[in-house]
């Protein structure tokens, strides 16, 4: 068995597809900016790729560092959502 | 009171092992502890059930949408919880009670125990498709069992214990568990702490020698500690990370169609002990071929229901894989069972070509099809493809100044256009055609008997499922039987259609490519043309190809298969061995595809952007290592003769997958150049 035939896992360590990982999606999306590639439903979007990339490549450290403070972070997040909702004229409820 | 929290499963188990000698009983929470879900939100498992109930209602002429069913379920469940809250400390609900009430409201008199069982079975099968046991915890359970500890699972959930047993049995650790207790049976839950006195009384437990493990800081941490029980609470950072990935993919897929297929693949991925080291071809089968074939068979099911197709015939040999995939994936997608019958039909281009001439004779188009591959050159090749004996045709050939070996293909040396014209003139000769019909009659009779026995003529609409590409198999099949009055309407559903020769479609006989169709411009999907043989070999059944149909002396028929002990037979066997892990990956994906796609509720149209991305990424822009690992070693094509053409047909983009490693690595911008050429070819079509 040569290098390419080495056994591997179907899901990589960052909960990604080993067969077509996120960076490859990003590379192809970048190429599709210059070369028409057909119907890709609008593509993945840079923001989505960035967020998934952070979880994929830095998530291990980030989640381990943040998990003891999960409750506090969650409260802050709820507060931010409420403030954001009030700022746009909502009542802070019913936002998904 | 300090709750002992653990941020990794390994650290929790280490602590648990240290505590184990001090306890006789270990109680475990079930969800998010012993079992984890592939999906981030457990409520999403209810959506396919709502769809199923709406479908059942529609089948009985009742107008209910999925959203209405889900709303009703939520309302009734909430009401049940409120009523329980008036009598108990916990606001619990019991699944059979509120579901039966919901079904009675929707179905009225039709609602009975059998209907409830049907719905409940589907909900449990969806749960089972989404639940995975945590490997390390199950290993620890095994150790605890060996140490003679009493192991009880206790869960705050709407499902009674008998349903939880089914989940535990499916997860494979029921033999390690002494009992399962659910709050749905007693309305005494861990959340209020009432479940612990109940357990103590029922199993005569000593709180001082009792350890509880769970994931909720209150229900599984604070409450047992208040009762004097040791408790360990899992707050798994990696689980949170995994769920964060799933949640984002599912949320993104609502607004961006691109992510729908990716979310599907995320839900299909193996977790915990399932995710072990595999052969690279298994990984490709699971992650690349699996979703493509899954979307293809799901679309076949949708089209079949829409068009009232009575029976689906999966055509050999690629249909073998499609049928197996169908059997694994489709029951979860269409649980109401309103699906056509399925069967596997032994056919091949060579076998059907011989039988196709018995009534219509040899047509000019069919003769042209013979000369598409560069290995065919003369009348002997026509005879080989259509299973004709060349000897009796000698006088006819002589009449048109032709011989058996006159070159009739423009790709070969010695080709003269007037010879091709003479061939066409001969095809219009009645005597010639009568001889063709006479020689084809036996095979045609045998084919018809085989089809009669398969129930082919018993339906008004049948689907013929094959991999592609010109639709030659269906063309020959239909020509062989089109003279009959009872011939059904044939819907050819192909993985991809290239339509190199126009298909003679009419209202009773047509083909369409579901993943790629040349008639429907889809540039990304046309990447399939890079490696068609790869798909054929990946899906091919492990049995030899069919050479023909023959009548038996007793009036029956027999299927004549190609022998397997020659060089080509050995090459096929070798190919089967190479692709065995790839097919294993495809079938492993089939089991996951059904559950994941049912949960998301998407169809091929939703998955298409991601599948296109897969096709372009994997076939047009593959890595060199991928090509070297995945490409097939042998490809049998009996249709293709053995003659060497003087002028090779343009290699096209298929060239990428047949290049050697050095050129794949060193040729500058090879993939980009071929992709541009591919684009030019498609635009010029």
Helix and strand layout, with pairings?
The complex is a heterodimer of chains A (96) and B (685).
Chain A: H1 22-32, H2 46-66, H3 70-87
Chain B: E1 5-6, H1 9-19, E2 25-28, E3 35-37, H2 46-59, H3 66-87, H4 95-107, H5 113-130, E4 131-133, H6 135-146, E5 150-155, H7 161-171, E6 179-182, H8 183-186, H9 195-203, E7 210-214, H10 217-226, E8 230-234, H11 237-255, H12 258-268, H13 280-307, E9 311-315, H14 319-333, E10 341-345, H15 349-360, H16 364-370, H17 379-385, H18 394-399, H19 417-427, H20 430-453, E11 461-466, H21 472-481, E12 489-497, E13 509-517, H22 532-539, E14 546-551, E15 557-561, H23 567-600, H24 604-620, H25 624-630, H26 661-666, H27 670-684
Parallel strand pairs in B: 1-8, 2-5, 2-7, 5-6, 7-8, 9-10, 9-11, 11-12, 12-13
Antiparallel strand pairs in B: 3-4, 14-15
Helix pairs in contact in B: 2-3, 2-5, 3-4, 4-5, 11-12, 12-23, 12-24, 13-14, 13-23, 13-24, 14-23, 15-20, 15-21
Summarize the structure in short.
Helices cover 52% and strands 0% of the residues of chain A. Chain A is mainly alpha-helical.
List keywords for this structure.
heterodimer; A: 96 residues; mainly alpha; 52% helix; 0% strand; disordered C terminus; B: 685 residues; alpha/beta; Rossmann fold; six-stranded parallel beta sheet; five-stranded parallel beta sheet; elongated
Account of the 3D structure:
The complex is a heterodimer of chains A (96) and B (685). Chain A has a domain at 3-65. The termini of chain A are far apart. Chain A is flat. Chain A has three helices and no strands. Chain A has helices at 22-32, 46-66, 70-87. Chain A is mostly helical and 96 residues long. Chain B has 685 residues and is α/β, with parallel strands linked by helices. Among the domains of chain B are: 5-40 and 133-238, HAD superfamily/HAD-like (Rossmann fold), CATH 3.40.50; 42-128; 652-684, no CATH class. Chain B has 27 helices and 15 strands. In chain B, the strands form four sheets. Chain B has a six-stranded parallel sheet, sandwiched between helices. In chain B, strands 10-9-11-12-13 form a five-stranded parallel sheet. A two-stranded antiparallel sheet of chain B has the order 3-4. In chain B, helix 7 links the parallel strand 5 and strand 6 (179-182). In chain B, helix 11 runs antiparallel to helix 12 (258-268). The longest helix of chain B has 34 residues, at 567-600. Chain B is elongated and about 105 Å long. The model of chain B has no long low-confidence stretch (mean pLDDT 94). Classes of the chains: A mainly alpha (96), B alpha/beta (685). At the A-B interface, helix 1 and helix 2 of A face helix 11, helix 12, helix 13, helix 24 and helix 25 of B.
């Amino acid at each position: 068995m040569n290098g390419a035939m080495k056994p591997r896992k179907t899901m990589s360590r960052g909960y990604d597809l080993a067969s077509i990982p996120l960076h490859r999606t990003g590379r192809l999306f970048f190429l599709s900016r210059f070369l028409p590639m057909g119907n890709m439903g609008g593509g993945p979007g840079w923001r989505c790729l960035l967020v998934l990339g952070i979880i994929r490549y830095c998530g291990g450290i980030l989640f381990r560092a943040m998990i003891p403070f999960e409750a506090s972070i969650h409260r802050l997040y709820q507060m931010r959502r409420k403030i954001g909702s009030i700022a746009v004229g909502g009542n802070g409820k019913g936002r998904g | 009171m300090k709750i002992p929290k653990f941020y990794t499963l390994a650290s929790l188990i280490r602590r648990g092992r240290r505590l184990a000698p001090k306890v006789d009983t270990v109680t475990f929470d079930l969800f998010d502890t012993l079992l984890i879900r592939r999906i981030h939100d457990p409520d999403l498992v209810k959506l396919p059930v709502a769809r199923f109930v709406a479908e059942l209602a529609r089948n009985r002429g009742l107008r209910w949408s999925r959203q209405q069913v889900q709303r009703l379920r939520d309302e009734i469940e909430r009401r049940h919880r409120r009523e329980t809250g008036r009598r108990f400390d916990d606001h619990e609900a019991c699944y059979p009670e509120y579901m039966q009430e919901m079904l009675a409201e929707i179905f009225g008199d039709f609602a009975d125990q059998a209907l409830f069982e049907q719905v409940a079975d589907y909900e449990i099968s969806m749960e089972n498709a989404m639940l995975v046991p945590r490997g390390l915890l199950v290993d620890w359970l095994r150790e605890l069992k060996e140490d003679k500890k009493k192991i009880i699972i206790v869960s705050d959930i709407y499902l009674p214990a008998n349903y939880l047993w089914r989940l535990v049995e499916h997860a494979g650790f029921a033999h390690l568990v002494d009992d399962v207790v659910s709050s749905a049976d007693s309305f005494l839950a861990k959340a209020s702490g009432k479940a612990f006195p109940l357990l103590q009384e029922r199993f005569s437990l000593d709180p001082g020698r009792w350890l509880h493990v769970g994931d909720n800081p209150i229900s599984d941490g604070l409450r047992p500690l208040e009762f004097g029980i040791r408790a360990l609470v899992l707050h798994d950072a990696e689980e949170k990370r995994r769920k964060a990935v799933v949640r984002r993919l599912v949320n993104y897929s609502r607004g961006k169609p691109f992510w729908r297929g990716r979310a599907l693949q995320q839900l299909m991925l193996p977790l915990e002990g399932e995710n072990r080291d595999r052969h690279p071809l298994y990984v490709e089968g699971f992650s690349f071929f699996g979703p493509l074939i899954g979307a293809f068979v799901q679309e076949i099911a949708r089209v079949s229901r829409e068009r009232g197709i009575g029976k689906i015939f999966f055509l050999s040999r690629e249909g073998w894989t499609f049928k197996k995939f169908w059997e694994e994936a489709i029951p979860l997608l269409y649980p109401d069972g309103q699906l056509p019958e399925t069967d596997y039909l032994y056919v091949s281009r060579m076998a059907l070509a011989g039988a196709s001439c018995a009534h219509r004779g040899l047509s000019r188009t069919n003769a042209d099809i013979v000369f598409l591959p560069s290995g065919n050159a003369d009348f002997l090749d026509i005879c080989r493809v259509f299973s004709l004996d060349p000897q009796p045709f000698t006088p006819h050939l002589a009449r048109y100044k032709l011989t058996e070996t006159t070159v009739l293909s423009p790709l070969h040396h010695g080709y003269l256009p007037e010879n091709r014209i003479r061939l066409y003139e001969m095809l219009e000769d009645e005597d010639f055609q009568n001889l063709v019909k006479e020689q084809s009659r036996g095979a045609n009779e045998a084919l018809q008997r085989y089809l009669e026995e398969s129930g082919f003529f018993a339906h008004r609409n049948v689907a013929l499922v094959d991999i592609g590409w010109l639709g030659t198999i269906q063309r020959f099949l239909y020509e062989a039987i089109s003279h009959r009055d009872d011939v059904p309407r044939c819907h050819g559903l192909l993985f991809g259609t290239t339509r190199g020769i126009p298909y003679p479609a009419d209202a009773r006989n047509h083909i369409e490519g579901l993943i790629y169709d040349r008639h429907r411009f889809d540039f990304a999907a046309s990447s399939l043309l890079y490696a068609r043989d790869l798909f054929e070999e990946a899906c091919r059944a492990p049995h030899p190809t069919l050479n023909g149909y023959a009548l038996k002396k007793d009036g029956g028929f027999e299927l004549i298969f190609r022998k397997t002990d020659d060089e080509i037979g050995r090459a096929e066997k070798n190919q089967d061995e190479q692709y065995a892990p790839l097919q294993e990956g495809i079938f492993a994906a089939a089991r996951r595809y059904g559950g994941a796609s049912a949960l998301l509720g998407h169809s091929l149209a939703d998955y298409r952007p991601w599948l296109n991305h897969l096709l372009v990424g994997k076939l047009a822009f593959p890595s060199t290592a991928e090509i070297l690992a995945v490409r097939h070693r042998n490809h049998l094509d009996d249709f293709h003769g053995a003659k060497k053409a003087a002028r090779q047909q343009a290699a096209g983009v298929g060239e990428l997958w047949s290049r050697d490693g050095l050129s794949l690595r060193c040729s500058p911008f090879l993939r980009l150049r071929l992709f541009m050429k591919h684009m030019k070819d498609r635009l010029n079509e």
